[in-house]
Specification:
Helix content is about 30%, strand content about 25%. With about 500 residues, the chain is of the alpha/beta class. The strands form six sheets. The protein has an eight-stranded mixed sheet with strand order 2-1-10-9-11-12-13-14. It has a four-stranded parallel sheet with strand order 4-3-5-6, with helices on both faces. Strands 15-16-18-19 form a four-stranded antiparallel sheet, with no helix packed on it. Bound molecules: methylmalonyl-coenzyme A and adenosine monophosphate (AMP). Belongs to the ATP-dependent AMP-binding enzyme family.
């Protein structure tokens, strides 16, 4: 019989022999052993299996970060279902879309959201809604407590789905990137090797677990190495610094590094035991890269990835593999193909800027129930179009110089201007709008809205933005808004966002 390709089987096989050793220590002082992770994921997997839902069912989680939320992810893998993480910042309209599109069989949410979310789920035919709060209360754990703590890991083929991650495209609504067990496992194994995970490594886990960085890159890294995690429910720079002397690996988006640098406690001594600092999800400014080295003596390793592909490139970890070059995202990971092409699809030589395209065992199978969108995003010869613009240097290190997709990355979260413009354009008195990202000292890019009123209307920009707060995730809400008579357009009638970005580029300067 062929080996079970279920990702959980590989993670479980990496648990240390001493199952009573600490696997996760939380910021509230709880310690979970490897045995706890095994037993609790088994009980949750048995609960999911008892629901009599079809193979391939989606299990949607709109839950705050907690170890139990991670266990729900592991249990979903273990039982062979498909995990669908949803950022808790998402509000009703956003969730209505995700639930309507993904049609999950199970929704797990915080008890405070149960009244409206259970109704929404019911309207979309979801049969099971459980609650899970970050204090280990809720119906999910109550129900799971009645099940056995033994569970045989469901057999899954390498190409069967493990997770769907929603990510917005250049136009239109969010698309669910379908990731298989093999996509996730192959990437986790490559990273274990190239980032040189070692016995005794300890990870500070300070990222949210709704997205690739915190859920896959960080958690899989520690689990596949049998490494302990020091778990923070929310990023807090002082709590991270306090844990540095007991840790060896930290992963963050650039905003986390910017905020850590503002703390006096970030010193060489505090970082003396640390082995690796990884940054990704958004461009790391060269100033941050340099300041970090000056302050801590450590060179941040920057890597690059996407929800559709997990990790693609990485600066070297071992000195023998080369130096880490600030401003670059390093060479392609082993087994991953990365090319830079011109508009006609021809490969470009080193130093020339073009479209970044990728392929490999990590690249997703397609967008959930959107075959046309999937087809559009792949070339005829099977390369995925990332929408990023970059160039290789002579050593094969990639630099991301921009994006051909209209996307803002704020504090590591993606904000799609088209989505925000849609909401603004629907507001009374708004004729049209343009949403742009401009440099922001904390978030990297800050979201800015520029609106044109309908004839004879006086718009109150701040009031409109305040109204948006009740409709969309808070990080998408523009930090500043302006009312103008006209938007700048080119001869083709297209809004010239580059001119708006230039005009507002100093808006958030310190
Ligand atoms: C919070 N706020 C933000 C953001 N986060 N505004 C803009 N951008 C943000 N990212 C605002 C809130 O709207 C709120 O404003 C105020 O800040 C306080 O909210 P709070 O939640 O307390 O903020 P925080 O705890 O300070 O959060 C900042 C953060 C967080 C820690 C940087 O955004 C974060 O954890 N970011 C990491 C995202 C991440 O993991 N990305 C990985 C994606 P108001 O009070 O006005 O409402 S995976 C990915 O991209 C790929 C594939 C990859 O390569 O990794
Ligand atoms: P997501 O859709 O959340 O998976 O975000 C993926 C996008 O994040 C990529 O297409 C890039 O634009 C961006 N990204 C991720 N890592 C980096 C990085 N190190 N430097 C620049 N951009 C990055």
């Amino acid at each position: 019989m062929t080996a079970n390709a279920n990702l959980f089987a590989a993670l479980r096989a990496a648990f240390p022999a001493d199952l009573d050793a600490a696997a996760i220590e939380t910021d509230t002082g709880l310690v979970y052993s490897w045995r706890d992770l095994d037993r609790a994921s088994a009980m949750l997997a048995n609960l999911l299996a008892s629901l009599d839902i079809p193979a391939g069912s989606r299990i949607a989680a709109h839950t705050e970060k907690s170890v139990e939320a991670l266990l729900l992810y592991l249990a979903t893998l273990r039982a062979g279902f498909v995990y669908l993480p949803l950022n808790t910042a998402y509000q009703q309209a956003e969730l209505a879309y995700f639930i309507g599109n993904a049609e999950p069989a199970v929704v797990v949410c915080a008890s405070r959201n149960f009244p409206w979310l259970s109704k929404l789920a019911f309207q979309h035919g979801v049969a099971h809604v459980f609650t899970l709060d970050d204090d280990r209360s809720g119906t999910l754990l109550e129900r799971a407590s009645h099940f056995s703590d033994q569970h045989e890991i469901a057999r899954r083929g390498p190409d069967e789905l493990a997770a769907i991650l929603y990510t917005s495209g250049t136009t239109g609504r969010s698309k669910g990137a379908m990731l298989s067990h093999a996509n996730l496992l192959s990437n986790a194994q490559v990273l274990k090797d190239v980032w040189d995970w070692q016995p005794g490594d300890v990870l500070i886990h300070a990222l949210p677990i709704f997205h690739v960085h915190g859920l896959f890159v960080a958690s899989h890294g520690a689990l596949l190495n049998g490494s302990k995690m020091l778990w923070l429910a929310k990023f807090d720079p002082r709590a991270v610094i306090e844990r540095l002397p007991r840790a060896t690996v930290f992963m963050g988006v650039p905003t986390l590094y910017v905020r850590l640098l503002q703390e006096g406690g970030l010193t060489r001594a505090a970082c003396a035991r640390m082995r690796l600092f990884v940054s990704g999800s958004a461009p790391l400014l060269i100033e941050t890269f340099r300041d970090w080295e000056d302050r801590t003596g450590h060179v941040i390793l920057e890597r690059y990835g996407m929800s559709e592909t997990v990790m693609l490139t990485s600066n070297p970890c071992r000195a023998s593999d080369g130096e880490r070059v600030g401003g670059t995202v390093g060479p392609a990971l082993p087994g991953v193909g990365v090319r830079v092409v011109d508009d006609a699809g021809a490969n470009l030589p080193a130093d020339e800027i073009g479209h970044v395209q990728v392929r490999g065992p990590n690249v997703f199978g397609g967008y959930w129930r959107m075959p046309e969108k999937t087809a559009e995003e792949f070339t005829a010869d099977g390369w995925f179009k990332t929408g990023d613009v970059g160039r290789f240097d002579a050593r094969g290190y990639l630099t991301i110089v921009g994006r051909s997709k209209d996307l803002i990355i704020s504090g590591g979260y993606n904000v799609y201007p088209a989505e925000i413009e849609g909401y603004l354009n629907d507001m009374p008195g708004v004729a049209e709008s343009a949403v742009i990202g401009v440099p922001h000292p904390d978030f990297g890019e800050g979201v800015v809205a520029v609106m044109v009123p309908k004839a004879g209307v006086t718009l109150d920009a701040d009031a409109l933005v305040a109204a948006l707060k009740s409709q969309i995730a808070n990080y998408k809400v523009p930090k500043r808004a302006f009312v103008v008579a006209d938007l700048p357009r080119n001869a083709m009638g297209k809004v010239q966002k580059n001119l708006l970005r230039e005009q507002h580029q100093g808006l958030f300067a310190r």
